[in-house]
Design goal:
By secondary structure, this protein is mostly helical. It is built from eight helices and no strands. It has helices spanning about 10-20, 25-30, 40-50, 50-70, 85-90, 95-120, 125-145, 155-165. Its cofactor is Mg(2+).
Length: about 170
């Protein structure tokens, strides 16, 4: 798209973004070493067959990254259009309206996660595995709580301090 100078539709972008977000790869790597009873063939098929929960986690990661990195980083260089730009162009809306729309998409993705996690537990491979995806997706919210912590790692300082230096006593 970048080489063609083309801004894809939001749907095209999301399909590609979900596949390239890295969440499914991180989730799969979390399975390694969990034992054959947990990390079964069914579990790996669940990750690779794009379940509703996995797609939602990937969408949350991609879109939150795009929202926070859109203005400060990605669009200051020759880069593929972000979800924000795709939304602005396709729906002919302002940046603010596009961001609001994308936050609604993130909210809907969380609803998909909750639905599959809570309402259809028999269809899921194991709560040990789905918990990994749920927690990775929660981690995305921490990464972007005060801005883009993946770019500005100093923003994670308070989170890491409270976790490792000053934890809540049990």
């Amino acid at each position: 798209w970048r080489n063609e100078g083309r801004v894809p539709t939001l749907r095209e972008y999301i399909i590609n973004g979900v596949a390239s977000s890295g969440v499914s790869k991180l989730c799969t790597s979390c399975f390694v070493g969990m034992g054959a009873e947990i990390a079964t063939k069914k579990a790996f098929e669940w990750v690779t067959n794009e379940s509703k929960m996995m797609n939602a986690g990937c969408l949350i990661a991609r879109v939150q990254n795009d929202i926070f990195s859109h203005e400060q980083f990605e669009q200051k260089r020759n880069h593929v259009a972000s979800a924000v730009e795709c939304c602005m162009k396709e729906y002919r809306v302002s940046e603010k309206e596009a961001v609001e729309f994308l936050w609604k998409e993130i909210s809907n993705a969380w609803k998909d996660i909750v639905e599959e996690y809570c309402q259809k537990p028999t269809l899921l491979p194991s709560t040990d595995l789905t918990d990994r995806l749920l927690n990775l997706t929660r981690l995305i919210n921490i990464f972007y709580d005060d801005g883009d912590c993946l770019i500005n790692s100093h923003l994670l300082k308070d989170h890491l301090t409270s976790l490792f230096i000053d934890p809540v006593p049990l």
